[in-house]
């Protein structure tokens, strides 16, 4: 049996799943490399589990935003954050375009007056 | 009253149509749901979009929630599904920006002897390694190893087969292990496959 064939099995064993394959178990018992890998997978698994308990305190406005969206859904006028953001970006783009157009018109008018 | 029983009471009231109870559920579970969404999407804006969509779906479906699973598990599944859709849509429109945006790995272990000697997996290293995974691999390992969802549930929410979910999980774990341990030089990397350097026993 080759070590590289055991990668997935070692990762599953690290979750606590028993190794039922006798040959694989016998191999791991005598293979220092596989034992080291198993130990690493266990540490990795433990560390990943610990991430679950990590919380980040989010601003209360974010929760309010969700509750407002639910309000809208209740009244049948749902607007998702993504749509709202797209609308804001669209508005900003329109304002920018209008500004650029004004500058263009002004410059053209000045050139005509100067000419 | 424990938090679990308090949430169970809120769920029961929300299923009976109490809007106040549902709002309290959102407040009680928002941080947890956001953390999962952030881990799945890799950035704050997308995570907030996903969380909002997830709670909207939960609001619409809470009457159908049978209560045979914990509310948190139910929310994880909805969030995973929303994130999968969201990330898929973003990838189609933005050409893998998620990967390009991923923060670079924490390289302190390469330069800091103290960090190198430290046998514990630091949270920063692990978070950085997770962020470097492609979204499809990250989703599976986060849902399985961090949030303890069963393979079948993960497969269902991501729209893939259970076998595909297991294959992705193994790839993700292998990459994480390589990122976290092999980079630290604890054990030389070994290739998996016919051309690998591993020895036969």
What does this structure look like?
The complex is a heterodimer of chains A (115) and B (201). Chain A is mainly alpha-helical and 115 residues long. Chain B has 201 residues and is mainly α. Chain B has two domains: 101 residues, Orthogonal Bundle (Rna Polymerase Sigma Factor, Chain: A), CATH 1.10.1740.10; 86 residues, Winged helix-like DNA-binding domain superfamily/Winged helix DNA-binding domain (Arc Repressor Mutant, subunit A, Orthogonal Bundle). In chain B, 71% of the residues lie in helices and 0% in strands. Chain B is built from eleven helices and no strands. In chain B, helix 2 crosses helix 4 and helix 3 crosses helix 4. Classes of the chains: A mainly alpha (115), B mainly alpha (201). Chains A and B meet through helix 1, helix 3, helix 4 and helix 5 of A and helix 2, helix 3, helix 8, helix 9 and helix 11 of B.
Please specify the SSE layout and strand pairing.
The complex is a heterodimer of chains A (115) and B (201).
Chain A: H1 7-14, H2 22-30, H3 32-51, H4 60-74, H5 81-114
Helix pairs in contact in A: 1-3, 2-3
Chain B: H1 3-15, H2 19-41, H3 44-61, H4 71-94, H5 97-101, H6 108-111, H7 113-117, H8 123-132, H9 135-146, H10 151-158, H11 162-182
Helix pairs in contact in B: 1-2, 2-3, 2-4, 2-9, 3-4, 4-9, 4-10, 8-11, 9-10, 9-11, 10-11
